[in-house]
Amino acid sequence: MATQSSSPSLFQGDLVRTAIRESFVKLNPAILIKNPVMFTVEVGTLIMVLVTIYIGVSGDQTQGSLGYNITITLILLLTLLFANFAEAIAEARGKAQAESLRKTRQETPAKVIRAVGNMYTNEVQTISSAQLKKGDVFLCEPGDIIPSDGEIIEGLATIDESAITGESAPVIREAGGDKSSVTGGTKVLSDRIKVQVTTQPGESFLDKMIALVEGASRQKTPNEIALTILLAGFTLIFIIVCVALKPFADYANTPITIAALISLFVCLIPTTIGGLLSAIGIAGMDRALRANVIAKSGRAVETAGDIDTLLLDKTGTITIGNRKATNFYPAPGVKQADMVRIAALSSLADETPEGKSIVELAGADVTRHLNTTGSKLIKFTAETRSSGIDLVTGERIRKGATDSIRNIVERVGNHFPAETDAKAKEIAANGGTPLVVTENEEVKGVVELQDIIKPGIAERFDRLRKMGVKTVMVTGDNPLTAKFIAEKAGVDDFIAEAKPEDKMQYIRHEQTGGKLVAMMGDGTNDAPALAQADVGVAMNSGTQAAKEAGNMVDLDNDPTKLIEVVEIGKQLLITRGTLTTFSIANDVAKYFAIVPALFITSIPALQAINIMRLHSAESAILSAVIFNAIIIPMLIPLALRGVEYKPIGASALLRQNLLLYGVGGVIAPFIGIKLIDLVIGLFV
Amino acid sequence: MFSEWTGIAVMYGLTVLLAIPLGKFIANVFADKPNLLDFMRPIERLIYRLGGVDETQEMSWKASLLALLTINAVWLIYAFVLLLVQGSLPLNPDGNPSMTPDLAFNTAISFLVNCDLQHYSGESGATYLTQLGVFNFLMFVSAATGIAALMLIVRSFLPKSVDTVGNFYVYFVKAITRILLPLSLVLSLVLVFNGTPASFDGKDSVVTMQGDTVGVSRGPAAAMIGIKHIGTNGGGYFGANSAHPLENPNYLTNMAEMVAQVIIPIAMIFALGFLINRKKFALMIYGVMTIGVLMLLVPTLISELHGNPAIARMGVAQPTGAMEGKEVRFGPVASGYWSILTTVISTGSVNSMHDSSMPVSGMMQLLGMMTGAFYGGCGVGILNFYYFLIIAVFISGLMVGRTPEFFGRKVEAREIKIASIVALVSTLLVKGGTALAAWLFVNYPEAAWTVKPSAWLNNPGYHGFSEMLYEFTSANANNGSGFEGLGDNNFFWNYATGIVLLLGRFLPIIGPVAIAGLLARKKYVPESSGTLPTDNGTFGLMVFAVIMIITALSFFPALTLGPLAEYFSLK
Asked: Where is the active site (chain A) (predicted)?
């Protein structure tokens, strides 16, 4: 979990200022009409403004006092502003998060190579990164900041990506393979590469993400649309209820003021959820971004919550990417102790986890006597795929993959023993990795490295199972090893000796059964499967093709991120559901506040329904409207953080949320309205 | 008192006991499994042949709805014309007149939509021909329409994505030949043996104990009263409905009629469970509906037994409870039980005068019709329940963190739109209608109609408001019972309720069938442990909460001004 997610306080000063400004801008009816619930509040507010002006001008008191009408108008306006503020603050936070990522790619000089005919010469011209266009090729040398997203077309380099991922260990990127993609803002540490720009300026994933957070290109997700329709339905029902109330009141010889009717209406329509709905959606995207996942659409985040099947690569997800040494197998005629000593020597200066694990396995008794003073370290490079040490005594010790060692050994005319070769194959067949060690180009034996299952991964799979998500391990290992690891890690199924098309086939198979499938991938050959999956998360280190095909990009290149994404999706839906329930449950108390207030003068017996004992009709109406307004800002933190998802089974979760937000939603406004009424009572 | 309580306990127990095997039987009928009534097959074949129906043909939900609406339109015209000219047609021994156009409009619609709101009195307003040829006929086909409509949604519960919903005509014919006809035959026989008339003779004359000569209406009543209850129709042969001694002679017939009107609505729940092989789901529906009924029934019985406080204040003891408008042979318990059951289901026959019920009982009767989903009418009760289910599934699906799905199908914008419209229309019809009536009453009391708005209400004030509210609620719920203090046989009420009846009947059929048709076509997603189970108590609670909240929020102000204001003023 290398998330660098900083969680700043919900309301930072500068963000709040932007949001307050935006809440006024959003009063524009052309913007507000997208939210039918709040739009009707705006219409109500306008009517109240007219009524207030009329009273002010004519002095007519049949609609209540001027002060009362002004107060109601202001509270309605405040209700609108609060709802706008919720959306604005969510936008501001999302934008701030995206901007902070974008800062890593501020103006940097780019060494552009201009093509001469069809040839790229090495004539370099330095321009600003902002001037780079898609298709341009630039050169990067050690120490350079990569000016733009792109694909390496020539060369290989180690790159420090900590600016984006927070991970300090450098990574290798090279032309041609699945690791050919580089990200703007990262730094080249060694070697030189030629990179082709893959995106137009302003169209990178981050730019798209920022646009999604901003109102302009944000599209409502299907689920959000359905909920908006339901809320609009409720709003229409309450329009009918309130309009019909007028003739009802006439029948009962009760004059009802416009202020009271509009207050009743605004209280009844689901303003709480209506006001927070878009904030919830934006916050969902924002939470994904905080987990360093760039979602290309809100829909993708939402779909993630529905995932039934999760395809996970074994390496890096289920097992620790680095394997551990478990056995030393000496070559024929080599003593065990010698072989161990040589293996330990080869790894003494090796800082990789594999190297350290070899030293560890050799034991302190062996390593204590080793002396490497004055020797020369041979570092691992992507090209030689071996490393080692040249001792002062002249011994050349190497360790590496079977193939590369065979090259070294056979180049000098030595023989690679068949027994060692067989052993290496056997290790590989059991899911391990063989490392061959040599001394002076003679094979001394083979070290077995084995997969280590990540601590705590079994619990995570258990959690997923409780969510109803089936986990599938994808591995290149043979079926036996795969089964062994699958059982140990607790995944539900596995694909062994997986080729890219196997993933595709598996996804298709699950989808025909009606399941939603998520997968993570990085290579170009993953692209079709990423596109086929309902949620495809491409690693940022992956190829451009993979990133285009998926609907999310993980900046951390962390394969376990899918689990977080699923939870973010679920949280998003739960927050919508619970706040809808809360909003509608609130109406019960509001009815008990306002309806008796409307009729109490003409039907004194209805005092019996005034169970809150609110002290006057006007204060009852005011209390209800004030409660209705302030509940919105009070729930903003919940809307932005999201209601927590607990994998306790759907029914238990429903019971819990129904109790908290349904029953709580019925009770809370009784208390709130009564308290506000008590406070108003002090002033009136 | 004990025997009164035992009486209703036995009535309810017997209903459920019979409904379970009946449910199994109905499931077998519609699943084409061998059943008792397979001997009806040749008759059905003949009907299909005569009607040009290919019984193997599969229909889409749209085609089925079109078929449903078309044949209903034909019956409407047929009924309207017959009622307009009944006075000059045969089988009219008492020489009753033809109906006025507005009354014929209202009556034809009313029987077509299984409501049987009666703005006429059977003794003087109808002939034997129209009693049989219009009312009795429409009682069968309207009930069968409801049952067939319910069958149209069954496939949306099955774990296979399909484009067709079955054959509407086959469902419709089988509902008559195998369910309605045999059951109503049994009930009619019970009634005949207890004294209900079944003849074509005209009025009989009787000399009362006071020495007056009274003409007692007769006619082919028993046949109609059978299907009136079995098909949750409720239209009385006589004006006083099942409070009339010839329509409901004694406690035994009262019991039989009571059991008969609830049995199909309850049996349909179990039938659905058997048909989709999900008994737990059926139990959930039954549980929610039963709790709903109990919550309406208990306050009613308490307030009826408690008697009228206004009478108590006059120093009159009421040892048997509130007796105004009740038949002594039934008493307040059996009458209260009947009044709630007949309003939750769409029968609307009465064995006491609802106008005289205590305010709390009146409110419970209103609520029973406003929800329309506790047992409900033949077939349509579950259809009404269905759109509440969809809304409940949507909200609770969100609450457990999955995009909502119902029986493996995603519930999306279109389904929610339809469910919202259905909920909306029912509020609009009831509140809009009542508001219009109240507005006319206040602003145009002297409008030049045969019955002036100022003369509509027998009781001014809160109760008068309840009378108007009840009339529109009853029309929208296709119930047909009334607060009879309302002067309803006139231009405004005949047309206004006629329109409400039509919309209140067909929109709640079209809506759920359309939702189910859309869902049935969708990709089926098998359930996982993340899916919300819809067949347990938790979800039942959710559905119940949705029904109560939507009903309460829609109607609270109206109920406050009517029964609640009356209750608190009377107290």
From this structure: 313
Q: Which CATH architecture has domain A300-320+453-555?
A: 3-Layer(aba) Sandwich (3.40)
**Over the Cα atoms of chain A, what is R_g?**
33
CA A101/CA A289 separation, integer angstroms: 10
User: Quick one: tokens of A499?
Assistant: 């080729």
The answer to whether domain A324-450 has CATH 3.40.1110.10 is yes
pLDDT of residue A425: 83
Q: Does B554 touch chain A (CB under 8 A)?
A: yes
Contact B431 A241 (CB under 8 A): yes
CB nearest to B530's CB, from A244, A467, A587: A467
* The two three-digit tokens of residue A255, written as one number: 């004059």
Element holding B216 (H helix, E strand): strand B213-216
Name which of B15, B13, B477 is nearest B234 in CA terms. Answer: B477
Rounded to 5°, angle at Cα B293 from B430 and B342? 65
Name residue, tokens 């913007």: A31
User: How many alpha carbons fall within 13 Å on the CB side of residue B151?
Assistant: 26
Rounded to the nearest angstrom, the minimum Cα separation between B537 and chain A is 9
In the CATH hierarchy, which fold is given to the domain comprising A109-144+149-198? 2.70.150
Q: What is the mean pLDDT of each run of 10 residues along chain B (571 residues)?
A: 85 95 96 91 94 92 96 96 93 89 93 90 90 93 96 92 92 96 94 91 86 87 92 89 90 92 95 95 96 95 91 88 88 92 91 92 95 90 94 93 89 93 92 93 86 85 92 92 84 91 94 95 82 91 93 92 91 78
Q: Within 10 A of A383 (CB to CB), how many other CB atoms are there?
A: 9
Please state the separation of Cα A573 from the chain's center in Å.
15
pLDDT greater than 70 at residue A96: yes
The runs of H, that is alpha helices, within B277-379 are 279-306, 309-313, 331-344, 359-371
| pLDDT (average), residues A596-617 | 88
Q: What angle do CA B442, B443, B448 make, to 5 degrees?
A: 110
- Indicate yes or no: CB of A658 within 8 angstroms of CB of B396: yes
How far apart, in whole angstroms, are the C-alpha atoms of residue B313 and residue B292?
Answer: 33
Q: What is the pTM of this model?
A: 0.84
Question: A residues 571-630 near B, CB within 8 Å?
Answer: 571, 573-574, 576-578, 580-581, 584-585, 587-588, 591, 595-596, 599, 603, 605-606, 608-609
Give the ranges where A642-663 is alpha helix by DSSP (H). 650-657
Query: Would you say A81 and A23 are in contact if contact means Cβ atoms under 8 Å apart?
Result: yes
Where are chain B's structural domains? Answer: 37-203+216-266, 284-570
CB contact under 8 A, A650 and B403: no
> Closest chain A residue to B552 measured between Cα atoms?
A588
What are the Cα distances from residue A447, in Å, to A354, A361, A422, A430, B11?
Answer: 11, 10, 13, 14, 84
Instruction: Check: CB of residue B127 under 8 Å from CB of residue B96.
Output: yes
Could you tell me if A571 and A641 are in contact, meaning their C-beta atoms sit under 8 angstroms apart? Answer: no
Q: In 3-state terms, what secondary structure has residue B129?
A: helix
Q: How far apart are CA A178 and CA A183, in angstroms?
A: 14
Pairing of strands A493-495, A187-190: unpaired
A386 known ligand binder: yes
Residue by residue, DSSP assigns A466-501 as HHT-EEEEE-SS-HHHHHHHHHHHT-SEEE-S--HH
Q: How far apart are CA A666 and CA A657, in angstroms?
A: 13
Q: Which helix (H) or strand (E) holds A627?
A: helix A617-641
The catalytic site residues of A sit at: 313
In chain A, domain spans: 13-98+210-291+567-683, 109-144+149-198, 300-320+453-555, 324-450
Q: Which residue of A has its CA nearest to B420?
A: A233
Q: Which residues in chain B touch residue A467, judged by CB atoms under 8 angstroms apart?
A: 529-530
Task: Give contacts of B524 with chain A, Cβ < 8 Å.
Answer: 514
